[in-house]
Amino acid sequence: MSETAEEAAPPEAFEIPGKDGLSIRGERYLAESPIGTVFVCHGFKGFAHWGFFPYVAQSLARSGLNAVTFDFSGSGIGPDRESFTQPEAFSTNTFARELDDLENLLDYARRSSWIDEKFGLFGHSRGGGTSILFAGADRSDVTALVTWAAISHVNRWSADDALDWRRRGFREVVNSRTGETLLLGTDLLDEVEAHLNTKVNILAAATKVKAPWLIGHGTADETVPHSEAEELHQRSAAVSSLRLVEGGNHGFGAVHPLTEAPPLLDRVVNETVKFFVDHAAE
């Protein structure tokens, strides 16, 4: 795959309402003779137009699968689809909100006849964690799951950090791409503390995933250690395949904007697309 996202046909844009007056904005990348549909979930501080997401979607569409990319309503990304112009949405985002967004999007897709019933699900990093929670909730409509660099647990801070977060009422998050500082309120902290062993237990959800699952992770991931992929595979060995990518970082070499796909990314995309195509009709 040498074609970049910019060289492919433009997708169809959509916007649907989320909770609290926020919107779920995204695109549909259409295949000529589709054999299925894949929904693509970005991660923390991510967005649908970042780096490899359009490239993955275009690659799926070229291989016969419609692809739907979108910004979670709590991503903080505004109507320009590039900038964090909705900091209050980012501040209050939670896993529960992301799961609601995904359910709302699927309902909309069914009402709009984008899908009949079944679909594939792709998630990167925290979006991988959200996808696992979703697919592990006794879903029979997910035909295939692919996660890249997925988190295996939601509590990603120390006890001291949590105390400071609670005391101040917010946590500062630096966006390494832009250098801006975003504030994260206590909604996520509240959720994790209340539901760590239940609703947001990713490892527990992994044991309940029924769909064929490809777990991709770079051995040089600087953000999420590849040991988390091994944990996920251990919990889901009956349905999952683990692919540790030697030398791969958190984005498999992708940058933003992506003007040319590096060979490592191409290899992971190729395997991902093949996995979805192989399981599209299940």
Describe this structure in words.
This protein has 282 residues and is of the alpha/beta class. The chain has one domain (5-154, 199-279): Rossmann fold. The protein contains 9 helices and 10 strands. It has helices at 52-62, 87-91, 95-111, 126-135, 159-168, 187-195, 202-206, 227-235, 263-279; strands at residues 12-17, 23-29, 36-41, 65-71, 119-124, 142-148, 171-174, 181-184, 213-218, 240-245. The strands form 2 sheets. The chain has an 8-stranded mixed sheet, with helices on both faces. Strands 7-8 form a two-stranded antiparallel ribbon. Strand 5 (119-124), helix 4 and strand 6 (142-148) form a beta-alpha-beta unit. It is globular and about 55 Å long. The chain starts with 11 loop residues before the first strand and ends with a helix.
How are the elements arranged and paired?
Elements: E1 12-17, E2 23-29, E3 36-41, H1 52-62, E4 65-71, H2 87-91, H3 95-111, E5 119-124, H4 126-135, E6 142-148, H5 159-168, E7 171-174, E8 181-184, H6 187-195, H7 202-206, E9 213-218, H8 227-235, E10 240-245, H9 263-279
Parallel strand pairs: 3-4, 3-5, 5-6, 6-9, 9-10
Antiparallel strand pairs: 1-2, 2-4, 7-8
Helix pairs in contact: 1-9, 3-4
Based on the model shown, name its key terms:
alpha/beta; 33% helix; Rossmann fold; two-stranded antiparallel sheet; eight-stranded mixed sheet; disordered N terminus; globular; 9 helices; 282 residues
